[in-house]
Amino acid sequence: MARFIFASAVYLLIGLIVILPVVLVFVMAFSHGLATALATFADPDALSAIRLTVIMTVLTVAINTVFGVMAAWTLSRFRFPGRGALIVLIELPLSVSPVVGGLVWLLVFGTQGWWGAALERWGYPVMFAPPGILLATVFVTFPYVTRTLMPVMIHNGREGEDAAVLLGAGLWQILWHVTLPGARLALLSGVLLTTARAMGEFGAVSVVSGHIPGLTETIPLHIETLYNGYQTVAAFTMAGLLAIMAMLVVTARTLIERRAGARGLIA
Amino acid sequence: MSVHLDHIIRVSPQNGRPIVNDVSLTVEDGSFTALVGPSGAGKTSLLRVIAGLDGHQGGTVSIDGARVDNVNARDRNIGFVFQHYALFAHMTVAANIGFGLSIRPRRSRPGRAEIERRVAELLELMQLSGMGSRYPHELSGGQRQRVALARALATEPRVLLLDEPFGALDPVVRRQIRGWLRDLHERLGLTTILVTHDRQEATELADTIALMRHGRVVQTGTAQQLEDTPADPFVMEFTGDVIRIPGRIDRGLFVADMPDIRAFAANAADGRGEVLIRPADIRLLPDAGSAMAWLRQTRGMIGTYDFTTGTQTLRFETVIPAGAAPIIVNCALDISAGRIAQGDGWIERQETGVAQPATPQSTGP
């Protein structure tokens, strides 16, 4: 009986908080018919937002994967002074509001900031330009790969790596053939989390982007612009697109995990 | 290939205490040596120093006469079997075994066919034929262990190091694998160093035993040497059953605290002392005292006695005196075949010839 009540409560909650809003997004998007919804993508600003989002996401994931792997490996393998502080620092973006993250970059790279004016003079504007958006997104999604990878690396222990060393493997061979494959589900999980988060990031990007339609608007920013301009259908269509992209990422993750599970790779 | 350790010192990176404390040891070419001792004795640490996985702060490691202190672990060509095997879970058995060959730089890497041939050969040797395409999680403990061994042997190492390799196996498999491993050692002409806390395992497998405690090698020798002439009370207790009988030395005699134990000559200054004796060396002397010995159990010529004197009882297994009744009254004990310990060492005895002067380290044959 208790099980039934708990299960019902969970379903109710999931339905209200997760499923209903998503369904509403699509209902709103298609409220004036499919053609109206699809017309959203005829707008060059929308296409530009999609392109920028994809580029930013790919770059962010690449940067944070390389960084995350290095950080997780270092932190799980070695004991050094300040290790604890480093872990806290890496986690900082999780606890700090994204808006604060954006403001910090503005302070450093903005025209009022330390290097912003100089960079702008040399023709490399960072704020209100794609590099700023990249910085902000990297900052916000910084901890995910490290945080998912590190516990698994610690759990897997050193013995496999020691065995590889004694068999003659070098540092890169160990990382590539032993450490990463041993933690590849966690790595994948971290990468996909980073992807989902990078695609949807609003707060930090909003501060540094400058909201220039067609130039510095990602999908989330474009949605806001559309919505504030009373283009409800277009706003919800873009939101639907973002939701579909996120769901694809989550589905990919589930599928890969299931296939690995079937092959007994989750020990 | 011989391994020579000279005054090795390794201190704990956490608290700076010595884990391996001034260990010198020679492992002859082709020998099977066991590092034995209670947990925390520094056996595994010493093995990792030999392999080059952990550094050492003092002393030298030589393999075949050449110092390897500055040689990286990856270049020492040492086979190592880890306690929990450390197989690569995401690789097939064949990929595990072939790993050491397939990661070599292109110049020295054997061809794919050659690696496959070598892997098949090792699978055959390890009695794992046909299992090459399985994953480690699909194997039993004994099979995993043999895969680990095959992987360690694939690169034709100079020395094979085994860290508690039987710990995770059930007793039946353990016994089988022991005999088989000893066989393999002979057949391949390996130089093997085994870490174990199991005295019997060491006795059964190794020609030479190095008994460790508190980071030091207490005694080196054959199992028989360690049992017959233990360097100190710890070695004696570790190598077999021991009965401890406290007492004192009084004007050249050892006098036990218990009554009805015959005093015997002890050539030492007066003071406290304790006799350590193998139960089988205890002799019951009928009609020589006022104690009672009650035979609880017999096994051939050996009996389990409860020896009671006053309120104290000793239980031990020893030879049944000829023609003795199951309950021997008015008896006493002769423990003069034992050794007298004072602190961590022996008190020397000269007159009986049973005990020899204690030497800190007697060398193996």
Describe the structure.
The complex is a heterodimer of chains A (267) and B (365). Chain A is mainly alpha-helical. Chain A is 79% helix and 0% strand. The longest helix of chain A has 34 residues, at 44-77. Chain A is globular. Chain B folds into two domains: 3-236, Rossmann fold (3-Layer(aba) Sandwich), CATH 3.40.50.300; 241-346, no CATH class. Chain B is 23% helix and 33% strand. Chain B is built from eight helices and 21 strands. In chain B, the strands form four sheets. In chain B, strands 6-7-8-3-9-10 form a six-stranded mixed sheet, sandwiched between helices. In chain B, α2 packs parallel to α4 and α3 (112-125) crosses α4. The two termini of chain B are 17 Å apart. The chains are: A mainly alpha (267), B alpha+beta (365). At the A-B interface, α9 and α10 of A face β6 of B.
Question: What's a quick, concise take on this entry?
Answer:
Chain B: InterPro entries: AAA+_ATPase, ABC_SmlMolc_Importer, ABC_transporter-like_ATP-bd, ABC_transporter-like_CS, P-loop_NTPase. The complex is a heterodimer of chains A (267) and B (365). Chain A has 267 residues and is mainly alpha-helical.
Descriptive tags:
heterodimer; A: 267 residues; mainly alpha; MetI-like fold; 14 helices; 79% helix; B: 365 residues; alpha+beta; Rossmann fold; six-stranded mixed sheet; 23% helix; disordered C terminus
Count of discrete domains of chain B: 2
Derived from helix and strand composition plus strand pairing, the structural class of chain A reads mainly alpha
Question: Portion of residues in helices of chain A?
Answer: over 70%
CATH class of the largest domain in chain B: Alpha Beta
Task: Look at the structure and give the mean pLDDT of chain B.
Answer: 88
Provide the gyration radius of chain B in Å.
25 Å
Number of helices of chain B: 8
How are the strands of the biggest sheet of chain B laid out side by side?
A: 6-7-8-3-9-10
Global morphology of chain B: elongated
- Report the CATH topology name of chain A: MetI-like fold
Looking at the overall shape, the CATH architecture of chain A is Orthogonal Bundle
Q: How many separate domains make up the residues of chain A? A: 1
**Overall pLDDT of chain A, averaged?**
88
How does CATH name the architecture of the largest domain in chain B?
Answer: 3-Layer(aba) Sandwich
Which range does the strand content of chain B fall in? 25-35%
- Biggest beta sheet attributes of chain B: 6 strands, mixed
Oligomer: heterodimer
Q: Secondary-structure element order of chain B, as H and E?
A: EEEHEEEHHHEHEHEEHHEEEEEEEEEEE
Percent of residues of chain B in helical segments? 10-25%
Amino- and carboxy-terminal Cα gap of chain A: 34 Å
* The named CATH superfamily of the largest domain in chain B: P-loop containing nucleotide triphosphate hydrolases
InterPro entries (chain A): MetI-like, MetI-like_sf, Sulph_transpt2
Keywords (chain A): Membrane, Plasmid, Sulfate transport, Transmembrane, Transmembrane helix, Transport
GO molecular function (chain A): ABC-type sulfate transporter activity
Main location (chain A): membrane
